[in-house]
Amino acid sequence: MKWFKVKRKNNQPPTLTLEEQRAEKLKELGAQLWAARQERSLSLEEMMVITKISRRLLQAIEEGNLEDLPEPVYIQGFIRQYADALGFNGAEFAKAFPVAAMSVATTAPVSVNRSMKLLRPVHLYLLYIFVIICSVSSLSKVLSSAELSADNNQSQPEKVSQPAPNSEPENTKAESVSDNQENQTVQIGVTLKAASWIRVIADGKTEFEGVLPEGSHRVWKAQEQLTVKTDNAGSVMMSVNQEEAKQMGEPGKPEEVKIAAAKPQS
After folding, report:
1. How far apart are alpha carbons 75 and 33 in whole angstroms?
2. Most buried one in 23, 25, 230, 245, CB count within 10 A?
3. What order of strands is seen across the sheet that includes strand 255-260?
4. 78-87, 132-141, 163-172, 198-207: least confidently modelled range
């Protein structure tokens, strides 16, 4: 009888530690979650978007890898959130994962070692939070600098373009001054068949100097004398006092034309 008692005692299943119970149950639940995800043809990246849980943690849950997961209470929360996303009753599903001690067979050294292991993921989370805060702060500074630089770049061309001789504001001003003048006795108009450089001097004052694009038509007036100079005489059609326009000269060659006002007869 004594032999049978010993034999029966040896056949009893060994008592699992709390850590072993968690690892075993995590593998079971993770396999169910993996199968449900495969059945719905969802990738881990898609589950990341749905659950807001990192890919590393989702993969560790499916593979039953406790070493890559935080404390048990957080693991249970992740399992519940993952199960809800796959259509399970997350609260009931996650209850199967042991958080509190299910057996008194665990020893003090094992619990101490487990606590030391569980501290590492918490440290990693703190590090992640610190890195995210630093990244957001740096990104904000970079965006602010970029906006300031863009504002400076936009404001500088405006200041430079105002005094440019061939800019539209100055051309408009020159034409309006000419239009407002009275008693003008000479007028020329130019029409460009191709983009060309032109300089116009009215009564000794430079009214325009720059490149006019193809198709441009401009008119200048003076009381005594107008001088027109171009680097491509063949592309400039010039009319004097609204007469028929004529080509200033040969194509590709510079030309200078001076038109004096007719003096009144005494």
Report:
1. 14
2. 230
3. 205-212, 196-202, 225-230, 255-260
4. 163-172
